[in-house]
Amino acid sequence: MIRYTQEEKSFLIEYIPGRIASEVVEEFIKKFGKTISVSQIRSFRKNNKINCGRDTRFKKGSVPANKGKRLSPEVYKKLSKTMFKKGHSPQNYRPVGSERVNVDGYIEIKIADPSKWDLKHRVVWEESNGKIPAGMNLIFKDNNPLNIKLDNLMLVTRAENIVINHAGANVYKGIEKEVAVNAIRLKKLIKEKILNNKKKRGIE
């Protein structure tokens, strides 16, 4: 580990901004006659939180230095094996219709290029019933998100889904879940009817 004198530290802090590490190394050796490496300069810059001040990002409107220039035969031969060839697909390309399981455990299906995916149970439902209305959720009767058969899917409102989860009905399966959902809907309907009757009596 190199130890810097106060003079060397002051020099580096002042000289580093706006310059690449190799340039700093060259000037440091010339000024102090002490051998130092590029990695040591980078470490000093990092440890002292010095911003090099150079923006190496390609800026919009900038023209690449090699624009319009042909590669030499030697360079082309070296790079040709890894070049992307017109008409070829990337190694990680997935064709339309491909499936995957996302981090939440739901099956996704690729519906369009270049990378448009949708939840498969939604696709299955919409193929038979049309577009899912806004504010509606699809749930699985057996609580298994991998079972995307049409008869295992049930359309509920978001409000109903919240009540289902809050009431613990999400643990029910099959016919029990259907009964639980219908009970929630019936309870809501009864409450609405009672409220409407009260309003009518109030008006009368």
UniProtKB/TrEMBL annotation:
SUPFAM superfamilies listed in its UniProt record: His-Me finger endonucleases (SSF54060)
UniProt keyword annotation of Thylakoid present: no
Record Pfam families: HNH_3
Gene Ontology MF, one: endonuclease activity
Keywords noted in UniProt: Endonuclease, Hydrolase, Nuclease
Stretches assigned to the HNH nuclease domain: 119-161
Heme keyword on record: no
Descriptive protein name: HNH endonuclease
Record organism: Lachnoanaerobaculum umeaense
